[in-house]
Amino acid sequence: MWWVTWLNVKPNPLAPSLSEELEGTITPEERMEFEAHFRPLVEAGKGRHKEAVVYLTATKPRLIQRIKQLEVLSHS
User: Which domain of life is it from (predicted)?
Assistant: First the structure.
């Protein structure tokens, strides 16, 4: 992955890119130091990419549903 692309990729549409984050948090000198360290690694394709995805589902416990049904019946 090329350096400029790596800096400007957003993990999701609502999140800032790394470049945007660096812009407001480090000095220009620190940015040059950051680039001197990471740019050769990025351009050589070194490093790791990790990603995790979780799918969650939920259901109401049957006991609670049954209690609600009984409450409705008792009010009838």
Answer: Archaea
Output b/e per residue, 1-30; b: 16+ Cβ within 10 A.
eeeeebbeeeeeeeeeebeeeeeeeeeeee
Q: Which pair of structure tokens corresponds to residue 62?
A: 């049957």
SS3 38: helix
Where residue 74 falls (left for φ over 0; alpha for ψ -120 to 50; beta otherwise) is alpha
Q: Which residues contact 45 (CB under 8 A, 6 or more apart)?
A: 1
* Residue that has been written with the tokens 């009010």 in this structure: 75
37 has a pLDDT exceeding 70 = yes
The pLDDT value given to residue 73: 82
Distance of CA 74 to the CA centre of its chain: 48
